[in-house]
Amino acid sequence: MKGRHIALAVLICAIWGVNFSVIKIGLQSVDPFVLAGIRFALCAFPAVLFIRRPDVPWRLLAGYGLVFGVGLWGVVNLGVHVGLSAGIASLVLQSSAFFTVFLGALVFRERLTGFQFAGAAVALVGLVCVVFITDGSVTLAGLGLVLFGAAAWSGANVILKKAGPRDVLGFLVWSCVFAPIPLFTLGLLTNGTAGYTELPSQLGPTAVASILFQVYPNTLFAYWMWNWLLKEYPVSTVAPLSLLVPVFGISGSMVLFGEHLSVLKSLALVLMVAGLVVGLYGARISTAPFPFRRARA
């Protein structure tokens, strides 16, 4: 990759990682589902008026919007709201990689490898470590909700693969149309009308800044540029950089919320990232032409 494109990929990972802390800032005053609803409403409008609808079936647009907007980010917002720290949320959500691998095997009949099973096992040990963190940054309800979000993300990835849109930005913008109404409805069902009657007083400068960051740098810019990089370079070149997301996520939470990086939390981070490396790139690493192998030959 060219140097400026590596820098772009790192910037995207930093945006995605810090976004978990930005979400938590917004949740200090705004209802979780209302916050997500506003985010996706602004992702869709007014952009949908200027960007042509991609040539994919409506059911895939709607399915992606519902799974990505409601199943992933609506639920992750709720998970952070009920006690999971921003840093841990950014780490746990990376388990979506394994959900995607196993769901892909089921839907597309892709063959699973020993490395993928081994990586999932290592990451699972890291996830178990998260359960035993007792510094107040983890709740079982929050952990379960973010794991649900990770599974939803894998479903969104499968829908995206089935759709195969040429215009990724158009697909993202048009799919976001389907998320706000269900999110606003969930906000009404879980918190009554309070989330709406109190919203004008809740939307101070900090909450507005949180929403705008989630909409423009995090969703529209970052997802658009990441998918552009995936078109320009092999997936094997770009995808490993996404392992930086939980590093930035935990770092952002430490800076903004004073989250403490305990030994157990560090172990969970190392194990989950190691599991991702083994599961997603183990086969490629094992066959790489390292210098000592060439010397033996």
Structure description:
With 297 residues, this protein is an all-alpha fold. The chain has one domain (3-282). It has 16 helices and no strands. It has helices spanning 3-27, 32-44, 58-81, 86-92, 96-107, 114-131, 140-163, 168-175, 180-191, 194-197, 199-202, 205-232, 235-238, 245-257, 263-286, 291-296. Helix 2 runs antiparallel to helix 3, helix 4 (86-92) packs antiparallel against helix 14 and helix 5 (96-107) packs across helix 7. The longest helix has 28 residues, at 205-232. 45% of the residues are buried. The mean pLDDT is 90.
What secondary-structure arrangement, pairings included, does this model have?
Blueprint: H1 3-27, H2 32-44, H3 58-81, H4 86-92, H5 96-107, H6 114-131, H7 140-163, H8 168-175, H9 180-191, H10 194-197, H11 199-202, H12 205-232, H13 235-238, H14 245-257, H15 263-286, H16 291-296
